[in-house]
Every structure is written in C-alpha cells, then in structure tokens.
Amino acid sequence: MDLRFSDEDEAFRAEARAWLTAQLDGDFSGVRGRGGPGDEHALFDERLAWEHHLGANGWTCVGWPKEHGGRGLSLHQQVIWFEEYARAGGPGRLGHIGEGLAGPTIMAFGNEDQQQRFLPGIVSGKELWAQGYSEPNAGSDLANVATRAEPDGDDWRITGQKVWTSLAHWSDWVFVLARTDPTAVPKHRGISYFLMPLRQDGVEIRPIRQVTGTSEFNEVFFDGALARGIDLVGGVNTGWKVAMGTLAFERGASTLGQQMHFRNELDDVLAVARANGSIDDPVIRQRLAAAHAGLEIMRWTTLRVLSGEDNTAPPPAAMVTKLYWATWHRDLGELAMDVLGAVATLADQSVAPGNGYELTALQRLFLFTRSDTIYAGSNEIQRNIIGERALGLPPEPKVAAKP
Ligand SMILES: Cc1cc2nc3c(=O)[nH]c(=O)nc-3n(C[C@H](O)[C@H](O)[C@H](O)COP(=O)(O)OP(=O)(O)OC[C@H]3O[C@@H](n4cnc5c(N)ncnc54)[C@H](O)[C@@H]3O)c2cc1C
What we know:
Blueprint: H1 7-25, H2 44-56, H3 75-87, H4 96-109, H5 112-123, E1 129-132, E2 148-152, E3 155-163, E4 173-179, E5 191-197, E6 203-207, E7 218-227, E8 232-233, H6 239-251, H7 256-276, H8 282-307, H9 319-340, H10 361-369, H11 379-390
Parallel strand pairs: 1-4
Antiparallel strand pairs: 2-3, 3-7, 4-5, 5-8, 6-7
C-alpha cells in the first residue's frame, strides 16, 4: 500500500485543520488541550458540549462506515484527522469508549436492531459508554468474572461488582461481561455480553480516588440491575468471543488517534529540556532522541499493520501495538520527571491551594502513565499473547483448578 498522502488527502487535511482551528480558537477555546492523561476529570460539561458539536458536524466516528453513521474515511484520512486533532489541541474525547470499543463491537457482533438503536447515540456524542470487564478477582484472568446474570422473563438481572470502570460516573451505558452459566467448563464458555443502562435502580457507582488526586475510574455495584434480553450481544454463553473482539479493538486500531497526542506531550517535555538546559545533558539528550525515534517507529508500525488489513478486524501483528505504546508512554513519563529534575517533586506553585495536591501537566502525565502498562491488558499479558498467539510458542503452564 502506498503510504504517501494524495492531493485529495491534503485537501481533506486543509478542511479538517480549518474546521478544528475555527472551533478551538472560537467557542471551544476553553477545552483546548484539556482532558488528557491525568486530566480526565477536567471540564466535563464543556467537553460534553464539544462531543455534541463534533457529532453534529460529522467529526465523530470518522473511520466508521457511512451506513453506520460514520464518515467512512480512508485509513490515510483517519490518520490525517487524528494528526490535525492533536495539532489543534483537541481535548481528550469523552466518547472514546463508545466510538473505539462499543460501536465497533456492535457493528461486528450485534444484530441489526442493536446497531440501529445504539450506534446513532455514539455518533451524535449524546450517549457515553463505559467498559464493565474487570472485577476484584478477574482482571488479567477475565474468564474468572463472577458477576452473575439471572433470567427474568425475556430479560436478565445482573448482580455483582465491577472495578476500575473508567468514566462510569459520567456514562449512560456500559457493556458488561456476566456469568450466565456458573457450571460451564472451561469457565469462559459460561459468559455473556450485555449492553446495559448505567442510570437505573440497582446500579451504584463509586468513584475511586487515584494517585493523581482525581477520579477517572470507579467501582460499579449491580444489585439485580436490569439487562434487557434484546441487548445481549452474540447469544447466551457466547460472550467470550465478543469480549475478545472488543479487546482486539482496544489493543489495536483504536490507539492510532492516541499516538498523535503523544507527539504533543513529547514536544512539551522537549520544550522544558530546552528551557532548563537539561537538553545539554548527554544522557537526557539521548533519551529524548530515543523517544522521538520510538514515536516514529510506533506510527509507521501502526500504519503498516493497519494498511494491510480491514481495520475492523485487527490482525495478529497488531498484538505488538499495545505493548509498544504503553511502554513508550510510561518511559516518557519517567523522562519528563528526569528532565524536570528536583523541581518534579514540588506541587504546582502557580495554582492556588485547593485539595492540597495540585500537579503540573507533566506530573499528571508521569503519574497517569504508570497505568498504561496495566489497563487494556498488562505488559506481561501482552507478552503472553504475542508468544502464544502470534509466535505460536508453547502456552504458559496453567495452575490446576482446586477440586
Ligand atoms: C487507568 C485504568 C483504567 C481502567 N479502565 C478499565 C475499564 O474501563 N474497564 C475495565 O473493565 N477495566 C479497566 N481497568 C482494569 C484493567 O483492565 C486491569 O487492571 C488489568 O486487566 C489487570 O488486571 P488486575 O488489575 O486485576 O491485575 P491482575 O490480573 O491481578 O495482575 C496483577 C499482576 O500480575 C501479572 N499477571 C497476571 N496474570 C499473569 C500471567 N498469566 N502471566 C504473567 N503475569 C501475570 C499482571 O501483569 C500484573 O502485573 C483499568 C485499569 C486502569 C489502571
């Protein structure tokens, strides 16, 4: 595939840049650059208005097919859109779980009725989504989920606890893995995949205060909450396949947009290094150069992976993507602290005392990037997946289940 941009692509770039600049210099200047790693708590109402504005102008779900309400952009133009979005300082997206995970899953595994009911809310930016996978005893070992779904006429009642549920406190919907057959062996054969409203009786959401001092994720408790039978994706006890499909989206193509923001963050670190003279330190200089090279490698590798395949079904080679960007981003956080030097240990002096824990953007970046190598599959799990599924190495030994 030819990876150069055509004249048509460049015309699209000009259109996207002009639109973004006009909005982010104008009515939406307050959200410019906000809502990134460690800043997710910021300006919810303003960023929600931005989501609606993007939706109303056809700038959400740009890679989705037109028949599902997307913009149907080519891979090249998606790249351009994400580049321009980052260049313009577009805020962290509130709708990314719907756009990147729920929507593609519903397109791939949902029925027509589900597609018609759920996709428009994601495209318009009016319905926000959360991901209800992890539980206290089911993180890496997702097949261990204990949240149970019990039949109630045509519908289901969900009881149990999810944890680390990002943005649940703001979301309208959650996709939930729940056990519909407690006796199934192996365990993953007894799991189903439900689309559920979060704002209902029987759902309690408790934000978790994180090391950044703010709350991006939550505990979610279900106590007989309603999941409608028509909102079950992929059939009873066959949710595992759907769940793995969602994870493939999470670890693969949907990270393309994120990389463009990494460039801005690296530029911020570089600016500090230039300003405080640490750029003259040969070791810092070498690490900055390595970060730049790593970012370029990430970009071209992602393009190479995506360009050969239908991006709704990431290929095995996409399995390296999550491991690579997570490690790169974690290292950037550490580099940012080393570039700052001793001042990295001081709270933000320019902010009036509030909760006693004011952080600079780079400190938030550092603290939040500690989580990159954990969520969406930890580095250790990614290595297992690459070894077993991409390289065909022998599987890791399983500990025998207790009788
Ligand atoms: C910022 C953030 C946001 C998140 N958002 C969501 C969300 O929206 N929805 C959601 O459902 N979940 C979310 N999570 C949870 C995330 O998916 C889990 O934290 C992750 O899957 C790891 O599970 P765990 O925390 O239970 O750790 P564990 O699975 O208990 O793992 C603990 C340690 O053991 C290692 N380990 C485990 N198994 C193996 C193995 N087989 N081989 C080698 N090493 C192993 C792990 O790598 C890790 O270092 C989020 C997490 C974070 C940090």
